[in-house]
Every structure is written in structure tokens, then in C-alpha cells.
């Protein structure tokens, strides 16, 4: 699939005067060693940072380009009817760049399969529509992304799928719910959005499986660097790759990661049938993001811990929600199932109420007032009026005095100084 180029032939190189008179290239020089094909190397035993850079990223066979090309094509030439090259026919169904990202993400997660989507909600939608039917039920945590609740309550419930809400951090409440009704899925966010609740994935998976339910973990806040839910017993993992995986606030995407071959095939069928796929360029942006994910997530976590610790000392702050703090109710569980940090998200409740929260969210300079999270730049928002407005008036309604911080990778002292100045501005 590469164009013919005017590259020099071997004979042209051998007759070059410089090369023919160079004593280092004359008889007696060591024969070159044949390079090892990266595809033959077992990356599974290597560290996640190594897998993130090399899995699915073999240099281009035609040119040797270290970064594989972006296959910006909608269709592929066939060598005779049905004569597909490498199985590629149409980019809604398959595309080499998307395949590269799928391979890379699965390797980082330690999973058999990963499938990329055009958004995180598209990933959730296809996973559920391919595996549930009217009459089935889903058990949802009471602190989740507003878009997830909107999709389930306003799309799946009218379709005939039952939805119940429970405090997913309370294992006794989860167990009681599972004893009261049959569920197809237990839907977990940990850390949750926006209150950073922590669910024990292993314990929840054990009790769910005992009652015949599967467990899906939205791992967006932790990323596969800090937490690997499949290893803890979950059946599937979903991501908004827009966030930490993309990492630069310049791409929208999602992913489903799992080990079950049959469910993977059902998800892949509906993905193709419904067409909820990312473009090749979006896939490449996620590939680029994954390569530096290990570095970025640890910096996010270090900065967030510094910011959260400082916020604890502020009289304007009623409560700080961050699992890295020993005061957090889920700290011990997070310390066990999250490895290498506690993530870059911090939420705070302001003592002076909703108006103060909104004023504070608009008073920063380095923290940008915007929805989303997980980019290199720090963001701030008021969830009740922004990301979680859709859950207003429901059991998932968030506190009106809550402010959510996505702590970026800037200098931590500069971030703290920005928040300090914001407090001073709203106090005037």
C-alpha cells in the first residue's frame, strides 16, 4: 500500500567512489547482523511503559519509518474480487491505524482484546446494546459520569432495560441489591466522577459473579497505568480515550477492553454495523498519547497529591475528595488496587456554598474553566452546572458547592499559587 519511490539500487551504492575506496567498508568488515522483527518479541513480560511504546508499533516494512504511517484511506485495493491485502477492505470495518491502537491498548491492559470507538459513550452504548436486551437490568453506582446516566436512563430504560442505583462503595448495599433482583451488569466507576469514590473491584466482582452478573469498570480516571480492573476480576473495561489516554485535549474517543472472545465478537459486529469508529487520525492521536501515558499519569498524580494536601489547609474548603489522602474513606482500598499513584482528579466542596463554588471556578488563570479532564493542562469546572447537569433532581445529583479539578502536568507550585490567587479574588 505504499507508492514506488526512486530509491537507489544496491548496484548504485556499491559503485559509489566513496564507498568503494572506504577502507572500513572493504573486505574484512563485519557482516551486518539481521535486525530482530519486533513482532517476534514477547512484550508481555516487559514493563507497561515499554509495552506502551512498542506494542503494535513495528517500524514500517516498506520504508523503515519508526512511527507507523497513518492510513488515511476509506477503502483498499483488492487483488481480484475478494483478494484482500491483509484482510483490509473498508475503514469502517478495519483500518491498520485503528488496529495498531487496539493492539497497543490491549497490551498495556494485559488483555486479549481492545476495540476503539468514536467516543467513550459510543463504546458504552455498543458494549451494552450487543450484550443486553429488554427485560435485563443494570446496577449502577450513585456517583458516575452524567453522560453515562443520561444514556442509560434516557435511552436504555425506554428500550426496556431496567436500571437501579446503589452506593457502589458500600459492598453490603451492592450485595443486598444483587440478592433482590437479577442483573446482567454491575457498572462501576472507580475513582468515580466527580466525588472520587473508591469501589473494591475484586470484592465487587466476586459478589456479582456469585449472583450471575458481569462487572464493567469505567477506568477513565485511573487509566491502565494505575489500575487494571481485569486483573481484579472485572469482565470488561471501558474508557473515554479523550481523557488521559489521548492526554492532550485534541481528540475524542473511547475503547472497550476485555478477554472474552464471544463478547468481543458481538461488540465488534455492532461496532461495524453501527459505524461508531474513530478516524485513522484520531486513532493515531491515541497511539501517540499511549506512548507517554506512563510519564504523564505519574506527574498528574504527584501534582494532584500536592494540590489536595494544600487544599486541606484552606479555611474556604469544607472538604477535599482525593483518594491519595489518608482522610479519604476509600484510601486503603485505593492504595491496594491502584499502583503508582492515585490519579490527577481532585474535587472540593467550598464552605460558602454554590455561589462561591461558581465564582472560584471562574477565578483561576492557569486552571482553565472547561469541561473534560486528563489533558496536560489543568482544568476546573462546576459539575452541578456543567458535566453533571443532566443528573440534577435524581439520586445522582452532585453537591452544588462542588468544584472539580483536573490537575495537569504544569509545575505544582504554580498551580497552587493560581488556586491561592483565586481564593483571594473571590474574597474581595
From TrEMBL:
<keyword id="KW-0456">Lyase</keyword>
<comment type="similarity">
    <text>Belongs to the trans-sulfuration enzymes family.</text>
</comment>
<dbReference type="GO" id="GO:0005737">
    <property type="term" value="C:cytoplasm"/>
</dbReference>
<keyword id="KW-0663">Pyridoxal phosphate</keyword>
<feature type="region of interest" description="Disordered">
    <location>
        <begin position="1"/>
        <end position="34"/>
    </location>
</feature>
<dbReference type="InterPro" id="IPR000277">
    <property type="entry name" value="Cys/Met-Metab_PyrdxlP-dep_enz"/>
</dbReference>
<feature type="modified residue" description="N6-(pyridoxal phosphate)lysine">
    <location>
        <position position="243"/>
    </location>
</feature>
<dbReference type="InterPro" id="IPR015421">
    <property type="entry name" value="PyrdxlP-dep_Trfase_major"/>
</dbReference>
<dbReference type="InterPro" id="IPR015422">
    <property type="entry name" value="PyrdxlP-dep_Trfase_small"/>
</dbReference>
<feature type="compositionally biased region" description="Polar residues">
    <location>
        <begin position="1"/>
        <end position="28"/>
    </location>
</feature>
<dbReference type="GO" id="GO:0004123">
    <property type="term" value="F:cystathionine gamma-lyase activity"/>
</dbReference>
<dbReference type="GO" id="GO:0030170">
    <property type="term" value="F:pyridoxal phosphate binding"/>
</dbReference>
<dbReference type="GO" id="GO:0003962">
    <property type="term" value="F:cystathionine gamma-synthase activity"/>
</dbReference>
<protein>
    <recommendedName>
        <fullName>Cystathionine gamma-synthase</fullName>
        <ecNumber>2.5.1.48</ecNumber>
    </recommendedName>
</protein>
<dbReference type="GO" id="GO:0019346">
    <property type="term" value="P:transsulfuration"/>
</dbReference>
<dbReference type="Pfam" id="PF01053">
    <property type="entry name" value="Cys_Met_Meta_PP"/>
</dbReference>
<dbReference type="GO" id="GO:0019343">
    <property type="term" value="P:cysteine biosynthetic process via cystathionine"/>
</dbReference>
<keyword id="KW-0808">Transferase</keyword>
<dbReference type="InterPro" id="IPR015424">
    <property type="entry name" value="PyrdxlP-dep_Trfase"/>
</dbReference>
